[in-house]
Amino acid sequence: MEVKTRSSTNKKLGMHGAIDLQEQRFRREFYAAIVYGFGVSSLTGEYKVVRTFQEQHGLGVVQAEVYTLGTGRWRTLGPVGYWRNEILQFYGPFLNNHCHWIVNDNQICTFDLDKETFQFFPSPPSVEVNHGQSLGILKGCLCKLDTDYSELTIWVMKEYGIKNSWHKQVVEKRQTIQWPVCEPIHLITGLKDGSFLMVFENKLCVFDPRSRTIEDTYMFDPDLSGLAYRPSFVKLQSFESERVHMF
């Protein structure tokens, strides 16, 4: 696995690098979803990568491991009872010391980077059918995007961890804006003018809810997505025990 980053000490100097983590110890002869999350512990300041997977022998059992940058090894956390086989999102947005995933229809699971434990998290009001679901971060708040045959809904959690603080930020009918019905739309970030930068299929899109317009461009391989970049002054070279590549 490779963790890539871009750091900068001023507006003119940019540094790119990657850390190669140890190869996973599991092997599968057929398709298996490997789900990742990345964040920093609020107590220790340690950067951690968490992943879940299914082992070769143990169908239906989802295991978890965590990697603390600088240690050079994965640690086993054991089985995760909350998760089923079909993960709906392959990366977990990091907010408030937790990584977040959709693990079932209308169910959210989090990983606490301090306690290194998984738990369920309050979800928005459920609907009967959601063909596409994803989580993101919008202006410092957790958000959830739901798509079905008729509309796109963006939910925003105004107060972290409070179930009744979920609020419908945007509801857009499909007659106005066309999007893939059976594929999730991933929010990258909210822009200053109130529009949203999103990815679906292999398109990078800007959606303006005021004018009800969408601009898109083909930029990605179908298997790629995108995340918002958040700068940090932490240097990769400070993790001396890791295999660091600067470019």
Automatic annotation (TrEMBL):
Domain of life from the UniProt record: Eukaryota
Pfam family, one: FBA_1
InterPro entries: F-box-assoc_dom_typ1, F-box-assoc_interact_dom, SCF_F-box_component
Domain F-box associated beta-propeller type: 29-207
PANTHER family assigned to the protein according to its UniProt record, in alphabetical order: BNACNNG10540D PROTEIN (PTHR31672), F-BOX PROTEIN CPR30-LIKE (PTHR31672:SF13)
NCBIfam families in alphabetical order: F_box_assoc_1 (TIGR01640)
Full protein name: F-box associated beta-propeller type 1 domain-containing protein
Taxonomy of the source species: Eukaryota, Viridiplantae, Streptophyta, Embryophyta, Tracheophyta
